[in-house]
Design goal:
Length: 144
């Protein structure tokens, strides 16, 4: 739905394109970070600011990074799962995908960059039956 909103804004109201609004916010108030990597990240960042999720305009990918660090810390301390370096490499790729695409689906594991590292089969090999739960959990936790 967010991609559809982005496409409609750009087609129907180009003056309301997310990058233009981002730059307007930069003139009006403090912005946490530099210009976003793409318009989808800008739009999500703007929605989070306008709805009060973030007190200042913050690049969405920076929010995902911070949430990922917190999640990994919680996993490694206490009763959570301790990940190997290879598992961490996969988790970081998933984080990057969520940061730039807002969400990840199991089918995305058949695409770049995952396919170059063994795709869905490799993730299953690394995480087993927890694969689906980890994808669901990262989709929820990283976007919070």
């Amino acid at each position: 739905m967010i991609r559809e909103l982005l496409d409609r804004l750009k087609a129907d109201k180009p003056a309301l394109a997310p990058m233009r609004i981002w730059h307007a916010y930069e003139q009006l108030e403090k912005v946490n970070g530099t210009s976003p990597k793409n318009e989808l990240i800008a739009l999500v960042s703007l929605i989070r600011r306008v709805t009060g999720i973030d007190p200042v305009l913050t690049m969405y990918d920076k929010t995902v990074d911070a949430n990922f660090k917190d999640w990994v810390f919680r996993q490694h301390s206490g009763a959570g799962e301790k990940f190997t370096e290879e598992q961490m490499s996969w988790l970081r790729m998933i984080k990057e995908h969520i940061a730039s695409s807002i969400h990840i689906e199991p089918d995305d594991l058949d695409l770049t960059p995952f396919d170059a590292h063994g795709g869905r089969g490799k993730m299953w090999q690394l995480f087993g039956e927890r694969m689906g739960a980890i994808i669901d959990e990262l989709n929820e936790v990283l976007t919070a």
